[in-house]
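Risk mitigation, structural track. In case the binding assays with pyridoxal-5'-phosphate fail to produce interpretable data, a predicted complex structure has been prepared as a fallback.
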Amino acid sequence: MEPDRSTIWPFDEAGEPRDFYYARYGHPTGAAAEARLGELEGGDALLYSSGMGAETAVLLAFAQPGSTVALAAGAYYGTSVLMRELGRWGLRLVEFDQTKEPPAADIVWVESPANPLLTEPDWDAVRAHPGLKVCDATVSTPVNLRALDHGVDVVLHSATKYLCGHHDALLGATVTRDADLTARLREVRGRTGIAAAPDAAASLLRGLDSLDERMARTAATARELARRLADHTGVENVRYPGYSGLISFDVADPRRVETRTRVIVNATSLGGVESTIESRHRWEGDRIPRGLVRLSVGLEDVDELWADLDHALA
Ligand SMILES: Cc1ncc(COP(=O)(O)O)c(C=O)c1O
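Fallback model:
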C-alpha cells in the first residue's frame, strides 16, 4: 500500500474536520495498520514513532508525580533508563522478579519474554494486581501471546522488531480494550507529537502480511540452534523460551564471538529477517551476566547459521 503522506486533509462542506485533518492526530495508513494490529491482539491499537515513544506515551498518560512503577528485572534495558529519566518528574521505579508476585505499585510493567533474560511473567499474579498492568509483548508478538487475555490493560510493542520485521522501520504500538485508556493515549500522542510516520505504518502493513510465516520459521530455526548451543562446550546458560526467535547464552569472551560471525550481523536490535548478534554488556553493564550474548534468529538456513556460530565459538 502506497502511504498517503499528506499532513492535512480538507474539512467537510460545513467546515468541520473529517476523520483525518492533521497528520499528528492520525492518518489513513496509520489507521489501516492500527485496525489490523488491533484485530490480531483483540483490542484497539495505536501507533507511535517508536517503541520508546509508545512507552513514553503510556507513562505520561497514566503515571502521576509520586507514582511507583514495578518493572520486570531483566526487561528491555531502555525501559528502565526511561523510567529513571522520569524520576526527575517524581516517578519511582522498583524492579522485581517477574516470575514471582509483583510488589505494591501503581503500574506493573512486565515483558513477555523479557529481553534478554527471557523470563516470563507470573500471569496469575499479574492479573490479581490492582495497579495498571502493562505488558511489553515485543518478543512474543500476537502470534504467540494475546496479553489482553491475561488481564493486562495495555499491550506494548516495539513494532520496529518482529511486527515490521525487516530492520527498516522504527515504530511503536499500544493495544488496549478499554475505550477510556485508548482515548487518553490518543490524546497524549496527539499533544506530544509522538506520532508514527505513514511510511512506518505502511511497513507494518507489509510486515503483518508475513508475520505468521516469519514467526513459524524463526521459531523452528531458533529451537534447533538453542538445542545445538546447549550441547556446545564453549556455551553456558542457553536461554530460549521455546517460541519466537530470541536466544541468549553466556560465553567466556562475548566480544570475540560477536565479532567473528560472518552471516549473522553484529548489530543491535532483533526481530528482523536477518539474524543479529551482540554482547549486551556494552549497554547494560552488570545488570546482566558479563558474558551474555543475545542472538536474534532470522530467516536464513539453519545449517548456515549453525556453521557461522560454530566458527565464531571455536
Ligand atoms: C522489548 C523492547 N521493548 C521496547 C523497545 C524499544 O523500541 P524502539 O527501539 O522501537 O524504540 C525495544 C528495543 O530494542 C525492545 O527490545
